[in-house]
């Protein structure tokens, strides 16, 4: 049996990028031989094994044949006589279809190294069209590698357009769409993911609910969040910063689109929650940052439950800070005021004379006075 390193590890090493995990292909072996050597079988659909010590994935060389629609509509054929070249031929992009043998030689039958040099994301064979997930993968690789000068090859782009036109793209299951999209958010220039999907028609076909939110300004905010190394939640939230001034009708439409995104893609609950908070409160947060006043800030803390959920509020402010322009009160100052308010507690101010509801009112008054004095000092 011969063992080769394949896929992302070979690509990233040649690009001088850090290698995240190694994938291996085994040629000329049977599942029984693998098990006898101590490899643990894990593949449900095709034979993949975990190395007994490193736990890295070792897949038997295989070919694929389309049997139905979508990502799962494939049958796989593995046998001892499948060659490395046949296994590499079934892969998506030439830069992902290279292998390295155990002496460090690169096996590159489909021009991956040339495409690395000319910065092209190019499909390996027409079989590319059989897997609609590849549209999202190409957009994701474009988002990752655009800063290095990569772009989608014209003929690959043409295939992607055809896959959308033929309806193949609409067979993608929402779970995979969310998986690719949330991974794409964490790439270096996530804007490129949405731009690529938009220009081949896949945004409309696969993520139509996102369409109202994808425009140059939100994509700019998204990239700023990526440059600041923000979390996926913050990057996601940036997509929902509305164009100002936001009409009431636009706000309602945005809320409906967010509900549609949530019920279709089922992102974690905190994502939907954050998208709604951004839509709901962006106008007033931006207006407070421009002309701060104590009562508005206090009502904002109350409306967003900031006093009980300060971390969530900090995330919300971070998202909106990407759209702050002329500000008098910045994100850090607002957070400082929130922390000051949190430090003013009922037990510090209650006297024997006030009881019940009046305690809460006294705490609020104290907090308000504090914010007022701080804002006054800053003016
Ligand atoms: N729909 C897919 C999924 C995967 N692959 C192939 O399987 C390899 C491993 O897939 P994966 O781990 O998802 O991608 P990586 O290239 O390793 O990328 P990443 O850096 O994102 O892990 C890819 O390089 C590619 O050759 C493919 O051709 N088509």
TrEMBL record:
Q: Which HAMAP family match?
A: CCA_bact_type2
Keywords (alphabetical) are: ATP-binding, Magnesium, Metal-binding, Nucleotide-binding, Nucleotidyltransferase, RNA repair, RNA-binding, Transferase, tRNA processing
The reactions it catalyses are: a tRNA with a 3' CCA end + 2 CTP + ATP = a tRNA with a 3' CCACCA end + 3 diphosphate; a tRNA precursor + 2 CTP + ATP = a tRNA with a 3' CCA end + 3 diphosphate
For biological process, the GO terms are: RNA repair; tRNA 3'-terminal CCA addition
Cofactor or coenzyme needed: Mg(2+)
Q: Name one GO molecular function term.
A: ATP binding
Give the tRNA nucleotidyltransferase/poly(A) polymerase RNA and SrmB- binding domain ranges. 149-212
Entry binding sites for Mg(2+): 21, 23
| Taxonomy of the source species | Bacteria, Pseudomonadati, Pseudomonadota, Gammaproteobacteria, Oceanospirillales
What protein name does the entry list?
CCA-adding enzyme
Can you name the source organism? Endozoicomonas elysicola
The record, for CDD domains, names: NT_ClassII-CCAase
